## 1
Amino acid sequence: MSLEISNAQRAEVLTQALPYIQKYNGKIVVIKYGGNAMINEHLKEQVMEDIVLLHLIGVKVVLVHGGGPEITETLNKIGKESVFLDGLRVTDKETVDVVQMVLAGKINKSLVNLLQIKGGNAIGLSGLDGHMIKAEMKDERLGYVGRITGVDVTPITDLLEKGYIPVVSTVGCDEKGNVYNINADTAASHIAGSMHAARLISMTDIAGILRDKDDPASLISCIDINEAKELFDTGVISGGMIPKVECCIDAIHHGVKKVIILDGRVPHALLIETLTDEGAGTMVIKEKKDSHEF
């Protein structure tokens, strides 16, 4: 049964959102979106609707995306097995060609198209455009997996100034033109830091940082860097959460004020996080005394 609300209730909701709209107006928010959070098509449409709404109320949204599951699916179709080492995809020359095709082609353009359908004005970029994401080989055992050596966000800022939503796929290159597969969390962290973004929001397929990984009610709503280190040491942050939280901390060190690990499975999680008191994940900040700063 659908929940009917009156026009007065709609007006009340908008009024309650007003302080947040004022706070975010003109601010840069980098949204990392990818992996399993992109699989559900209905949720993907809601995420794009949220991004368009934030854009229309004056937030300078930058969408940075990965696409691991679709890369794996495409490799399977050509009969190539996906091999992972320490959570990173081993990327030979054939695999990096597929990564470039899937990320900079299929996924990037489908997200741009969906944003346009929802009323936004989006343009797709890859880390190769303007050599925006410079990289070098991270580890010979991983092949063409890149470590970021520099980020030039000029193409992104140019698009923002012209009123577009930049959609960035995370491939990079070196001075010789070699193409590298770049971890999307890492790329978003560097881009957000270089742009002095007010927020980096990392959309994932878990609730956030849990004290007990089996208990969603144990969600930690806010931690600072020192608390995060304690959670690493005690094993609360483990497995796939380790690189995500490390990227959050890197973003803070790069100058981002607040980083949110957001549950992308929650309908309209972006709006809940940005335009309400409730929030919808775990906020990572430099120090707890800074928590009341924007």
## 2
Amino acid sequence: MKRILQNRLAKYLLLTFAITWSFWVADAVLVKATALKASDIVPMILFTLGGFGPTVAACFCLPGGFSWKKLGAFLKAHKKKRLWFLGLFPALVIVFFALNATGLIPTLPQSPAAILVTALITFLTAAVLYGGNEEWGWRGTMHPILAERLPAWIVPAIVGVVWVCWHIPLWFIEGDSHQSMSFLSFAILGMALSYWLSAVYDMTGSVLCCMALHGLVNTLMGLLTIESNSVFYWIGLAVLTAAAVCFSIYAHRKSAKLQ
């Protein structure tokens, strides 16, 4: 069993990085060597396809091989008695970002209805195409493999480090939106997000719930002007991450008692 899990993990990581970095390196070279910008159609297609590396790799790493039936079961899996957590933790995340926001980004429409529609479209896009889709791999595949052998508080750290490193090519694509923050700031936020998403997965057992939270975080960061240099921001980040660790430990202990 141990060897099978190791092989699945190695296969997942190799496929994920091979797919993603191939597209993102091509994106970086294209933008560097031509007059195209990162926001133009062809570079955006390469960027989007690269983001599906974890998604595609997860499909190839389903236990027993890929089938549509297995994929459906993989996506529908959840712990029924803990879905209340999907309301609690996202609410805490919203409060955290709202308290550290100086307002909406200036380019948003001024009409409340237009803002609502923009937020909904941004969320759906982020959850399905730009962030949430990654959760098939990070939480749905890598996390449970590591959780078979490691303590609850260590797993998100390992997944987080790998996830942050997976993003490295984006800092070589001139004009990519990720470059609006330093790589160090992104890495710290990425590690925190890994713990948040792990808590959601541990509590709900649902990849779809992780997709929703990932999409929510990306939406909030895309629509709000966040003051990330304040002490209050870093304290809030630490407190929310500590809460996530506690929830993950709780979930693992409850699962151990049932076995």
## 3
Amino acid sequence: MGIFEEYKSKLTTAENAVKLVKSGDWVDYGSNNSMPVALDAALAQRRDELRGVKVRGDLTPGPIQIIECDPDMEHFVYNTWHCGGYERKMCDAGRAFFTPMIFRNLSSYYRDFLDVDVAMLCVSEMDSEGYFSLGGALGAAAPCLTKAKKVIVEVNSAVPYIKGGPETKVHISRVDCVVEVGRRPIWEMPSPNPSPSDVQIAKLIFPYIPDGATIQLGIGGLPNALGALIADSDLKDLGMHTELCCDGYYELYKAGKLTNAKKNIHRGKSVLGLALGSAEFYEWVNNNDEILGCTLDYVNDPAVIASMDNFISINACLNIDLYGQVCSESSGTRHISGTGGQLDFVTGASASKGGKSFLCMNATYTDKKGVMHSRILPKFTGGDIITTPRTQAQYIATEYGVVCLAGRSTWERADALVSVAAPEFRDELIKAAEEQKIWLPSNKR
């Protein structure tokens, strides 16, 4: 049987496909735009027939129908690897649960520890060799296929086909059911406009970036601000090796700065594990021979990252304490996002020849009551999750400056971090450092 005949033989409705799910099963939805919207709705319709179905997914915009239809979680329990806004609200309400992980370990979790009874993934149209691309979710969605007993694909022609090896795709021979949904809009997440603080932090980081550097950017206003600076600069031949590719890279490409010409590996290729952005961005990554999609156990491997000279990693964080511990995923015990790959890139970039890792944040935030707080804290005491340990933190950036913590003693760290705190909080931070016995008296200004 040829691949197209096989495709037709497996074509069915969402309602029929989800009959593969049984009570007690583990079901994987995949990540972001591999979230199978039609299959999720069809599975929710089976609520009263099923009990104790556990579902994994992450970074989806919502609503997720199996959560919406079952507030008491008697039928479905949703677990996320990384919270988007909708999943954060569900975790806040006790209607979803977070699963701690580091992205580079995701493949080994599935291989060695997890069961997958049914994988349901939204995919691109099938290519001439019988492969479906997992689109912008390929790096995180592919690992579940290594253990899935049954595979259902929801084919959406709007999903970009991102080129990569067989491990980033799924072949029709591996699929049990095919569900077509035509062309449905996929989640767009354009990078937000940078804030004044983002612009200032970008200006402070910019001088650290040499020609030929390979850059990893998180998502948010800072990449846009940095991209604008680079686009107007004399920097040239930058490379891309990133967990999450966003519009900021597209701007670098349009400005002629993203050539990948100096990379030690994958020269001429922009390497990504995930892709989220605007409609124009998706057109850029679709069937682009200059872009290489890889699974996150490779993209985020610190040894791979370290093998590239002048690797510059730039990520956001929420808080840091005077010891150099960094929290990037929770506010107290309230989960905000996830560990993701921050620690992977901090570790890899720090080991790169000429490499640097930057963790960036505004020095303050204002709460709902209008009260301003410092993001640099004396110490963590409220259950905050430590994403990057003090032993790994390298460069810390706020709008007040950039400091390096590598190899610094406790008093040197406290002194450096006070110097990039908001001026109105520096005296109380010094007082706290004195009480914590991490302040050198001669440092006091």
